[in-house]
Every structure is written in C-alpha cells, then in structure tokens.
C-alpha cells in the first residue's frame, strides 16, 4: 500500500526481509560441512543429499555459491496460493498465511527461483494475493473504530504498511472522542 512520504515512518521492506532471514528453511546441500557455530546458533552438519534445516540467510548464502538447493516451504506452491487467493476474494476475513510469507517468498523467488515449480505463476499469485489483501486493508481502514480493533491474519509486511497511517488515525480519533463537543 503506497502511503505519502510524510507518514511513511516504518521499517523498510528490506529490513523486514532481514528479520525474516532468521526463519528456518530446509535445504538439500551439495557440499559437506561440519557443524558450524554462529551468533544465532549452531547449524549442520551438512551431508548431501540429506535435507538440513538452517536459517534463510545461510540458505541464501549457500544457494548463491551454488552449494545447496532450497526446499520451498509447504505454502510456497501454486495450489496453496490459489486456494488462499480464492479465500481472499470470497470471504471478508483475511486468510491464514505465515506471518512473514511476503518476505520469505520474495527472498526465495529472488535467489532460488530455479528450485520452485513454475516460479512465474507463483509470483503472479503472490501479487494477486497481495492486491486482494491490500483492498481488504483499505476497506477495513475506512471502517476504523477507535474503541475496538481486530486484525487477525495480517502479515508483518501488511502491518508495517498500515502502521504509520493507523497511528495517526488513532491519535486523531482519540482526540476527537476526548474533546467535548462545543454547543451553542
């Protein structure tokens, strides 16, 4: 959702991708590597062709060096995304998606699209899903009520996009409710 620069004071999409890079993903290593300790934890050992679970940042690094194949998460496939898109366009509630699905999908599509079946269709479905969810967000913001708020199943990217607008809107609504109405 494109917001005016004046109220765009949130975490950037690149920063959200960095946060999401701590998510564990499965890989099929193409090299052997002993258990290695990092600040975030110890990962390995890696032994081809046995799947290993490592952080997305490490999988990305290995993939760029052609030392592994990234196994896409269960939800990053055409059938699942098509089902979620149908739900988004048929029901008023947001469909249940992984909290950081947008960031993880972008990183995997950027780095390991060759490890996905039909990455162009997946990109298209993710774009359609994002647009459908943005339309729901805009509609929900029009019906904003300061006394109650429920945003189940919004992902981190969506929350981050509406946060600046929401903070300003809630501030204005709170001031309006607190101020007594001036009568004649």
Automatic annotation (TrEMBL):
Occurrences of domain GINS subunit (ranges): 75-174
Alphabetized CDD domains for the sequence: GINS_A_psf2, GINS_B_Psf2
Coiled-coil segments: none
Stretch forming the signal peptide: none
Primary location: nucleus
Cellular localisation: Nucleus
Gene Ontology cellular component list: GINS complex
Keywords from the named record: Chromosome partition, DNA replication, Nucleus
Pfam families named in the record: PSF2_N, Sld5
Record keyword Ribosomal protein present: no
A single GO BP: double-strand break repair via break-induced replication
InterPro entries from the UniProt entry: GINS_A (IPR021151), GINS_bundle-like_dom_sf (IPR036224), GINS_Psf2 (IPR007257), PSF2_N (IPR056784)
Domain DNA replication complex GINS protein PSF2 N-terminal: 12-71
PANTHER family per record: DNA REPLICATION COMPLEX GINS PROTEIN PSF2
Protein family membership: Belongs to the GINS2/PSF2 family.
Quaternary context: Component of the GINS complex.
UniProt name for this protein: DNA replication complex GINS protein PSF2
